[in-house]
């Protein structure tokens, strides 16, 4: 993986997650870092849809963090330190409970498998998100598993171990391999990187 992509991943480490949300159609998403208020002024629109015109005629107020993580539906599992585990197929009550408990945890490490794109996100209070292409389906390198956006750049990882990166202003369309073999681990310290690598190797064995 290119150094520029690793820098984006590292820049999200040790930041607290907040506004953690789930949706059956959209997936799982969360913000990291210091909130920033974005104000969209009302404007006239020539859109055909009355609903769109009415929406743009109102003032919009949104909070954004320094980083935004999006995990696509059907591909993630969230486990918390107390043993609660949910997927997007879990009940709405359990999902609401889990994402509320994850909020505030600091992102400590990210591990990406170079052949499958499987990614594990590790948090400081025991939260753990696993993202992978469903085993029931053949891996398709065109399917995006997740993306992380900073205020200027993005990193996206695909099934089959591909990734893309670049400025937010440029749409990604040139996936390249994450690596040649094994796991790419990015963590807050070398010691934690070794610990995560050891844990993943042990789980695989």
Give a structural overview.
- With 205 residues, this protein is an alpha+beta fold.
- The protein has one domain (3-33, 66-204).
- Helix content is 20%, strand content 37%.
- The protein is built from 4 helices and 15 strands.
- The protein has helices spanning 3-11, 50-56, 92-102, 190-204, and strands at residues 17-23, 27-32, 36-40, 60-64, 67-71, 76-79, 85-87, 107-113, 119-123, 128-131, 144-149, 153-158, 162-167, 176-177, 183-187.
- The strands form 3 sheets. A 7-stranded antiparallel beta sheet has the order 1-2-5-11-12-13-14, covered by helices on one side.
- The longest helix is centred in the C-terminal third of the chain and has 15 residues, at 190-204.
- The model has no long low-confidence stretch (mean pLDDT 89).
């Amino acid at each position: 993986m290119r150094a520029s992509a690793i820098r984006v991943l590292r820049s999200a480490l040790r930041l607290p997650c907040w506004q953690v949300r789930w949706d059956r159609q959209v997936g799982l998403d969360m913000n990291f870092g210091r909130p920033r208020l974005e104000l969209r002024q009302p404007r006239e629109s020539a859109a055909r849809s009355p609903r769109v015109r009415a929406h743009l005629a109102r003032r919009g107020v949104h909070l954004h963090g320094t980083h935004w993580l999006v995990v696509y539906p059907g591909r993630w599992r969230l486990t918390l330190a107390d043993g609660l585990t949910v997927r997007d197929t879990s009940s709405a009550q359990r999902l609401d409970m889990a994402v509320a408990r994850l909020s505030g945890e600091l992102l400590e490490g990210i591990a990406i498998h170079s052949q499958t794109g499987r990614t594990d996100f590790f948090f400081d209070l025991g939260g753990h998100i696993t993202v992978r292409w469903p085993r029931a389906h053949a891996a398709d390198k065109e399917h995006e598993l997740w993306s992380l956006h900073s205020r200027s750049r993005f990193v996206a990882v695909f099934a089959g171990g591909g990734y893309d990166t670049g400025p937010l202003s440029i749409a990604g369309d040139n996936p390249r391999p994450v690596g040649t073999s094994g796991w790419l681990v990015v963590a807050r310290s070398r010691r934690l990187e070794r610990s995560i690598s050891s844990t993943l190797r042990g789980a695989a064995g």
